[in-house]
Design goal:
256 residues, alpha/beta, 46% helix, 6 strands, Rossmann fold, 6-stranded mixed β-sheet, globular
């Protein structure tokens, strides 16, 4: 069964939630972490354990941008084709009202079965656009245990898919590759590719930078990581997302 989760308040009780948060802040003297200056958005994540590990990319995005309402439809080991056959995933998507839909394929698929990946991703991007949402492809990262699932091969596959579908690519894999090269002491993933908490935070920062086109550097939300590690990962996300020449990026921005 599809795991469905939602962060932030739904639209109907949103005012009550905001008032409750305000009251709590007044009583405690605390200020919320994350970038509270960003506009409210609704973002749906569709994927598998790469998306839901360590609490989920949706939780990280909500922490970095607390006005964002996030939800996920995730099942371990699922491909996009599996999601297309899953009534729970399709029901969540069909709720509508999403500003963006982040689509994550099984980690080996874009390299080993590119045509199958592209077909499923095309169907989901079409569905998302019909609902007024901006489809975004989450570029995953190298898997040490899998032949050919390298940073370069994934970059090439997602660049091609992004151009073909005219969909924005969230270059998490690029950020992982750069971070592991410059800061090997920060372990981002297990041998089978599943992210560590640091890896989930980095991927979340890349999603944040791509969706909002703002740098995560200096964001006060660290997902429980020490401030030095969080700052390094924020810098890696910024470089991969905002400082890469357009011709070399795997993204192609399109209207919903």
């Amino acid at each position: 069964m599809t795991t469905l989760s939602t962060h932030a308040s739904a639209r109907t009780p949103r005012l009550l939630a905001v008032l409750a948060l305000f009251a709590a802040l007044v009583l405690t003297g605390c200020t919320p972490s994350g970038n509270t200056a960003l506009p409210a958005m609704r973002v749906l994540f569709i994927g598998n354990s790469y998306t839901f590990y360590n609490g989920g990319l949706d939780q990280v995005l909500h922490g970095l941008a607390p006005h964002t309402e996030t939800a996920s439809a995730t099942v371990g080991g699922y491909t996009l084709a599996d999601h297309l056959r899953d009534s729970s995933t399709m029901g969540k998507l069909q709720e509508g009202g999403w500003d963006a839909v982040v689509i994550q394929e099984q980690s080996q698929g874009p390299v080993w079965s590119f045509s199958r990946y592209l077909s499923s991703a095309r169907t989901l991007t079409v569905k998302a656009r019909r609902l007024g949402a901006r489809p975004m492809l989450l570029q995953t990262w190298a898997r040490p245990d899998s032949r050919g699932i390298t940073a370069g091969a994934l970059e090439a596959a997602f660049t091609k898919a992004g151009k073909s579908l005219q969909a924005t690519v969230i270059p998490a894999g690029r950020a992982f590759d750069r971070s592991l090269s410059l800061h090997p002491q920060i372990v981002l993933n297990q041998n089978d590719g599943h992210p560590t908490p640091e890896g989930t935070y980095l991927a979340g920062c890349v999603a944040y930078a791509t969706i909002f086109q703002v740098s995560p550097v200096g964001n006060s939300f660290t997902a429980g990581l020490d401030s030095q590690t969080a700052h390094i990962l924020q810098q890696m996300a910024e470089t991969a997302t905002l400082h890469t020449p357009k011709a070399a990026t795997a993204s192609a921005t399109s209207a919903p």
